[in-house]
Each structure stands twice: as structure tokens, then as C-alpha cells.
Amino acid sequence: MEDEGKDPYDVDYISTSGVYKTPFTLIILVQFFIGGIILILINLWFINSLYFQITGEEFYATGMPNEWWHWILLPLNIYGNIFLFSFSVILLSAAINRFFLKAPQEGVFKRGSKEWKNMHRRYWISYLPIWLARALPLPWADIVVYRFFGVKIGKNVVAYEGYIDPCFVEIGDFTMTSLHICIYSHLIYHDKVIIKKVSIGKECIIGPQTLISPGTVIHDGAILGANSYTWVNQELAGNLIHVGTPVSHTFPIQSLEESKKKVEVLKTKLFREDDDPDLRKIKEREKE
Length: 288
Hints:
This protein is an alpha/beta fold. It has one domain (23-252): UDP N-Acetylglucosamine Acyltransferase, domain 1 (3 Solenoid), CATH 2.160.10.10. It is built from 6 helices and 17 strands. Helix 1 runs antiparallel to helix 2 (74-99), helix 2 (74-99) runs antiparallel to helix 3 and helix 3 (114-135) packs antiparallel against helix 4.
């Protein structure tokens, strides 16, 4: 039993999602199966035409002409079917997520509870669609899929390769996420799951190899430095650079001109020290 008065969101360390494979993980096979059936039904006439060109017989009468130039369209047909399969799985999964899965709730829940199972189902129902969206040669596809599954993403947001939880995540306008980031609105810690909204403001930069924990609030203009991670419920002030594992240091954001001025000041200070005879003697003694 948890200690009375202890913050339920208090954790000793931050881990990855830790979502386990259960029988519901087989939903991926169902998605593949239904996507494949749609693919076959739409392409049946084309397959029948190619079959006729090889054998001289139709395996079923379509009433459509079987032309030799259908072979010329085969590469284009294969390429188009990649998109057809991907969008079929994405739309089917988004419909299941919206109409058949219970809306998630924020809080701390025990392992095996309804909210735990609901979180698990939402994770796996979105797994394949997000993967397919990232594999497509369309830079906006992943943004569209995230929105389908409940992520609130503003305009002109850049979402490079990484993972974003499909619910309780808000990302403001003109924000950029870098490579290999993880934005988790859920965290599995021992025998409980923590689910809490993550809010990222406008014009923020999320550096590479970073991990954002549930409940994190990043204000407008903030920068999360590379290889950093946040604690549960941590708040990062705007217009500052935040770094650390976990985040524990902040630095002001400087323009290129400001950085050049500081370098010049340091150079001037060093030159003055070199001209000071007393300082030169001290440095010589230190070398000895």
C-alpha cells in the first residue's frame, strides 16, 4: 500500500513506456489482414487481366478488357498499392480508436485496471499506422496520423523521427522536434501507470535524443537540449535553454551577435592578463 500523503506522481527514476505485449497486440495482424483484403478487392480486375495475359483464361469474368499494356502499369500499380494499403490501415485504425475505444483519463492507475488496459489498447492500435505514416515519402503524413489519434498539433510543426504518445499531448505552432525524441503522456512505474497531459508551447525546440515525461509543461520559446529528459510534472520556463538528466540547468538564449560580443570580451580580458607583469610571474611559477 502506498504511503499516505505521498504524491502519486512521485517517481524515483524515469523509464521508457514499457508497454507489454499481450493478446491485444495481435491487432496488428488484424490490421494487416483487413488492409490486405481491401487491397485484393480493389485490384482484382487488374490481377485477373495479368492472369489472362499469362494463361489465356480468366479466373473470373469481369466484363473488362484484358489489355497487354496493363503490364506497363504494373510498377505504378505496386507503388500506388503501398499508399492504398497504408491509408486503409490508418483510416480503419483511427475509426476503431475513435468509436470503439473508451476515452482515456488522466491519473495514476494500478496495473491491470481498466485505464491500464485502455492505454495499452490505444498504444497498439496506433502503432502500425504511425509506423506506416513515417515510412511513406510524404513529410506531412505523420502529422495527419497523430491528429487522427488525438494529438493536438499546431500549424507549421516539424516532427522528425521519434515517438509521440497518441493522446494527452499538445504541441504549439512553429515548434520543432528533433531526431529520436520520445514524448510520453504515460509512464509505467512498478505496478502503476501514470497518465498525464504533456503541453509544449509555441516556437519551442525539442533537441535530439530527449525524453519528455508525463505532465511536463514547456512554455513558449523554450529549448530542451540534446540528451536531456524531464521529470514527471516538470515545468520548463519559456525563452530559456534547459539541459540535464533530468533537466536541472537553464541558460539564456543568445543571438549570434551577442555570442560574438562575449567572445571578444573574453579575448580582451585574456590579452590584458598577458600584459600584466605580476600575472605573468604567477603563471610562470605555476608552470614550474
